[in-house]
TrEMBL record:
Positions of transmembrane segments: none
GO cellular component, one term: plasma membrane
GO molecular function, one term: 1,3-beta-D-glucan synthase activity
Annotated protein name in UniProt: Glycosyl transferase 48 domain-containing protein
Biological-process GO terms, alphabetical: (1->3)-beta-D-glucan biosynthetic process
Domain Glycosyl transferase intervals: 11-138
Pfam families, alphabetized: Glucan_synthase
């Protein structure tokens, strides 16, 4: 009947798989272009523990900022500029097109946190926010540092 062909795409939308696909594609493209720019093929962990373990937000930010979050913010600013300037210039905006165009920036910004286990647990979210703020205000260390915990914001940025 009619419900069978609608069930599969609706199920994919409800599990946010388009958001994951956009985030995954951007990560692959980022690291692929980085390999061509600077070379240095090396082992990239598969991230098998990602589906089981909760990762604090400051570690997610340190990992995905350059590949996903910064381009997502750029796309969101570009889309905001389009929304702001289109009526001034006399152009009509199609809301369906804006909705679909907003999938990419939203998935790039929220995707790394959205697919983190326990992402919707309030206690984990409050703890992650506290760790993120402490990571931002922690003074920079001289001489770098390891990745566990991530270097402070001053060293990262």
């Amino acid at each position: 009947g009619f419900t069978a062909p609608c069930r599969k795409p609706l199920g994919a939308l409800l599990t946010f798989s388009p958001f994951f696909f956009v985030m995954q594609s951007r990560c692959i493209a980022h690291y692929f272009s980085l390999e061509f720019a600077v070379g240095g093929g090396k082992y990239i962990p598969t991230g098998r523990g990602l589906a089981i373990n909760h990762t604090p937000f400051h570690e997610i930010f340190a990992t995905y900022a350059a590949s996903c979050m910064y381009p997502g913010v750029e796309l969101l600013l570009l889309l905001s500029g389009l929304i702001t300037l289109a009526p001034i210039c006399g152009y009509a905006l199609n809301y369906w097109a804006l909705g679909f165009a907003s999938i990419a920036p939203v998935s790039l910004i929220l995707g790394p946190s959205l697919f983190n286990p326990h992402a919707f647990c309030i206690a984990e979210g409050v703890d992650d926010l506290g760790r993120f703020v402490r990571w931002l205000v922690r003074p920079a260390k001289a001489g770098g540092g390891g990745f566990d915990p991530p270097p402070p914001w001053g060293d990262f940025h």
